[in-house]
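Sequence in, structure out.
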Amino acid sequence: MSPLRLANLSLLILFPIAWVAPLMRAGLLPLFGLSEISVLSGVISLWDTDIFLSLVVVFFAIIAPIAKVLALEGLMSGRLPARLKPWLFHLGRLAMADVFLIAIYITVAKGIGMGRLEVAWGLYLFSACVLASLALSIASGHKRA
């Protein structure tokens, strides 16, 4: 198995870790403890208030990245035809959208100034997984016709 395929398949382990890892810690006042927010806790919380937005987050943060990893594995192993490469490119764009949305939420929450918001290690892991997936798709694109 090539190093690219191995790195790609490792994302099948790293993404779920990133989904349960704390993305940020939020609190209303500096005196009280901060609540940790992960992708999964955010989806569960959204489900109670806005099912549509919850489904959007599930698609962008969970389904699109894993589908991209599996599609890239299929292309690199020769199990999927090369004509699907353009779809992989678009799937990669969808998988990047969630990191952009999280960055916007953090910026907005800090701008309001009504509480504390700290970025946690899970956001770095999640962003690294998405960027690694992007890099792997670019690297594999140069190797296969």
